[in-house]
Write a structure and sequence with these properties.
The protein is 16% helix and 36% strand. With 323 residues, it is an alpha+beta fold.
Length: 323
Amino acid sequence: MKLPKELQLATLSATAPEGDAWLHEQKFDGYRILAVKEHGDVRLLSRRFKDWTAHFQAIADAVAKLPGDELAIDGEVCVVQPDGRTSFQALQNAGPHDPALVYFAFDLIRQGGRDVGALPLEERKQRLAKLVTRARAIRYSDHVIGNGGAAFANACKLGIEGIVSKRRDQPYAPGRSKIWLKTKCILRQELVIGGYTDPDGARTGLGALLVGYYAGKQLRYAGKVGTGFTMALLGELRDRLEPLVRATSPFDPEPPRAWTGPRRHWVEPRLVGEVAFSEWTEDGRLRHPSFQGLRADKLATEVVREVATPPGTARSSGRAAAK
């Protein structure tokens, strides 16, 4: 089966777009997964097209039961909390057969040997809704049309991360563009772990993570993250970081001890974590950061600082929408 070389990605926006040309979906808090079914064989592919079927076997089993011999569905694997919100932290503890795993399907790329990604988004979603309507572990990602500001305000009121706004009339466009926009109620992004500090008092494992992002080939320091950990996670992180210890700072420039604390250890910048925070300070550091979990679906060298921009005029992907 011919698959896109990249998944379609959303651009961070300062505000949600208005107008009926856009539809708005919930922004989910999980792992982006491309579900592929081909003549009875099911594969779950990560954002980098790594085979993650064994990680989410309950979802693979549900996809196998969907009608049709050839399917490619884009969506996100999550764990849903009792209040209805998705939780990336809870997902870290879910096993491959966990009944709490849910696949939120939001796009259909191939169906029955046809490249339906060439169709307008709204038509793809109509097909998708009919396809997954009876699947227990697969939920259709519903949407509202227009009123982006109101949709965003409601998402924030409900305590979810934000919304993803998409042009209704556009085909599936691999890569990042402005025909998909994400607007966040809570600031979150992936950051590279470049060091850690020793714990104080009764705490074990580590005190805080020293994190940053790439600007070109330089790893810029973004601050220390000392909250959001369980005791078990502190120990796991220390075990994973100790083999990566190095003598010199991976950050350029090296952050002063006044920023990191005196008992610091540098590591090879290979691990990526997701961090929630309130804002960026003027000197480029995180305010009130909280660790959400490690991300295995993104390379450290791909991590850059996300900067929100006004929606502006959405540009077409350059691919003609087939009717």
